[in-house]
Write a structure and sequence with these properties.
Layout (H helix, E strand, L loop, with lengths): L3 E4 L30 E4 L23 H14 L12 H9 L3 H14 L7 H11 L5 H11 L3 H7 L3 H17 L3 H6 L2 H9 L7 H14 L3 H13 L4 H5 L8 H16 L1 E3 L5 E3 L9 H4 L9 E6 L4 E2 L5 E4 L5 E5 L7 E8 L5 E6 L19 E5 L4 E4 L2 E4 L10 E7 L4 E6 L2 E2 L15 E6 L3 E6 L14 E2 H4 L12 H9 L18 E4 L4 E3 L1 H6 L12 E4 L2 H5 L1 H6 L5 E2 L2
Parallel strand pairs: 9-19
Antiparallel strand pairs: 1-2, 3-4, 5-8, 6-7, 7-18, 8-17, 9-14, 9-18, 10-11, 10-17, 11-12, 12-13, 14-15, 15-16, 20-21, 20-22, 22-23
Helix pairs in contact: 1-2, 1-3, 3-5, 3-7, 4-7, 7-10, 10-13
Length: 576
């Protein structure tokens, strides 16, 4: 659960000199008529209200470089404390948003993000993504000026930004901008210097974190077709495919290298492009290379993360046990096995130490990734957050006594359905039982998790020995679950798209599930196109957002000849 960050775009912030990091500047008196506020959750901007900034500044003086640096570090230090949707954002964040409202200010904020975000803070890359997402969209001129300032030729980049933390931050900034501005702006940003910088940092001699974010930046640039072609052509000219070398790090004991290996292998499996000529042009994929799932023996796995019950941007490994989020949204997933009675236990290996909410959820728990809502943010799920040291239930949090988790820690999760309690363990150390989840749910529980940007972990459902089994009798998912050979396969994206293109959809199919016939009309808005099963799950019309007061079951005959139905005394069947 990310906090609700409210930024008023129409109110000028006070002109202040930032104090030491971690202290709030004195705010200006509130206006007599407070303007309406724009709400974002988990730092994700409402896209309909973004705007491009101009060249004029609203500040009465130009903020100094050191002031902006202090504001950035203050935001980084306070961001983990934003856990309540009713909290105001840090004043430092509001001021940075206003500083970035002109080209010069935006450039100064980006330079500061590159310059001062430290390597060791687990939320550093996520805060860069958050602040860039909160700032107004840059103009094309601002992007070109940033590219010129970075001057990422081999000599100048090493001279200006030689520290691994700064090189990592450059990659994060480039990736975030490529993701936000896919299309012509992304094409113009990906100059030969930028490409050379990213490719040169794929060399295994570089710091693993720099390699990782170089891969992610290239992946996000490749979301634009022209960029994907350019990346493909460069890779084809290289004597050794760099990702083929890096994918072998996926089981390295160094957890930063393990992240690199995961991303390299995922890119090799998933990123390719079909050209209009119907000729397949590979970007990250090696010609003749087997997909990872074809190389693995998955027969021992009876429970996995469910690739059909996951939000759209989460990356899942080919064995279905490892998950990662590199998007600027809060991605969630459930496992394939449901438990209804008894005592159950699973473990999670923490690979990154940022914000993840890991726990239990029923099918009724909603994945609202762009709203920042995931596991623990409704009455049908409960989650452990080891970064902010919180337990989440119904979008409310309470502190726990475990220390902050770190890479290599093992989170244990015990569910006792019969006695209605949950127990969370960190490296075998238990917290007191929690019972709130059973206020609204009695059965139908799944292992589940939500991930903030740049976070990753591995699940153990019992296919291998547990590191810290609890000293009580319990069941394991893998012993009682069942999967067919087909269900064990997590298809790469291109293969999934190929299968979807072969699916034929009837003209009268439901516009939501595409499986059943569209036979229901929503009242009072009278929008149709939904089946009765989907309509019963809706609270508001997905077309006009009007609250649904009634659902009417209709038929072709009733639709085409309502007057005839009326003359016979017939009427549509009321569902609700």
């Amino acid at each position: 659960m990310g906090s609700c960050l409210c930024v008023d775009k129409n109110q000028d912030p006070p002109v202040v000199s930032a104090g030491p990091a971690g202290t709030q500047p004195d705010p200006a008196p509130p206006p007599s008529n407070p303007p309406s506020r724009r709400h974002t959750v988990n730092g994700h901007t409402s896209h309909g209200e973004r705007h491009r900034h101009g060249s004029g500044s609203r500040w009465s003086r130009e903020p100094k470089e050191k002031d902006i640096d202090k504001l950035v570090l203050e935001t980084l230090s306070l961001i983990r404390t934003l856990v309540d949707n009713d909290q105001e954002p840090p004043l430092a964040m509001v001021i940075l948003h206003k500083v970035a409202d002109c080209d010069a200010g935006w450039l100064n904020v980006v330079k500061s993000l590159i310059r001062v975000i430290p390597l060791e803070d687990p939320l550093g890359p996520a805060v860069i993504a958050l602040l860039l997402d909160e700032c107004p969209l840059p103009t094309k001129e601002a992007l070109m000026e940033l590219r010129g300032h970075l001057n990422l030729s081999q000599i100048d980049s090493s001279r200006n930004y030689h520290k691994p933390c700064q090189q990592r931050n450059i990659c994060v900034v480039l990736g975030c901008l490529a993701e936000k501005m896919a299309g012509p702006s992304s094409i113009s940003l990906m100059s030969s210097d930028v490409l050379h910088f990213l490719f040169s940092h794929l060399n295994p001699i570089n710091h693993p974190v720099v390699i990782l974010h170089s891969i992610i930046a290239l992946e996000k640039f490749a979301q634009t077709s022209e960029n994907k072609v350019t990346v493909s052509q460069l890779l084809q000219r290289m004597p050794v495919h760099p990702l083929e070398v890096l994918q072998d790090w996926s089981r390295d004991p160094n957890y930063s290298k393990r992240e690199v290996g995961f991303c390299a292998r995922w890119c090799l499996d998933n990123l390719c492009k079909c050209m209009p000529s119907e000729k397949l042009l590979t970007a990250f994929i090696l010609q003749g290379r087997q997909f990872t799932y074809e190389q693995l023996d998955l027969s021992r796995l009876n429970v996995m993360l469910n690739s059909n019950d996951v939000s759209e941007y989460l990356k899942i490994s080919a064995d279905g046990l490892e998950a990662r989020c590199d998007a600027s949204s809060f991605e969630s997933v459930r496992c394939t096995f449901q438990v209804d009675t008894g005592v159950w236990y699973y473990e999670v290996l923490i690979i990154t130490d940022g914000v993840m909410q890991i726990g239990w959820a029923t099918k009724e728990s909603k994945f609202l990734n762009h709203d920042g809502c995931g596991i623990g943010d409704d009455e049908f799920s409960m989650a452990y957050d080891g970064c902010r040291q919180l337990i989440w239930y119904q979008a409310q949090s309470e502190s726990h006594t475990h220390p902050c988790w770190k890479p290599g820690d093992v989170l244990g999760l015990l569910l006792d359905v019969d006695n209605q309690k949950l127990v969370f363990y960190l490296n075998g150390d238990p917290l007191p039982p929690y019972r709130q989840l059973f206020n609204h749910a009695r059965s139908g529980f799944f292992a589940a998790a939500s991930f903030m940007s740049f976070q990753q972990c591995e699940f153990n459902f019992g296919a291998k020995p547990f590191k810290f089994p609890p000293p009580i009798c319990f069941r394991t998912f893998n012993l009682h679950g069942r999967l067919t050979d087909e269900e064990r396969i997590i298809l790469p994206r291109q293969k999934k798209l190929d299968l979807l293109m072969q699916v034929t959809v009837k003209e009268d199919s439901c516009t939501l599930c595409f499986d059943l016939q569209a036979n229901t009309r929503l009242m009072d808005c009278k929008h149709a196109g939904f089946c009765d099963e989907c309509a019963l799950q809706l609270e508001k019309c997905p077309i006009c957002r009007q609250e649904i007061r009634q659902r009417i079951l209709i038929s072709d005959a009733m639709e085409t000849s309502s007057s005839e139905a009326g003359s016979k005394g017939g009427s549509p069947k009321r569902l609700s």
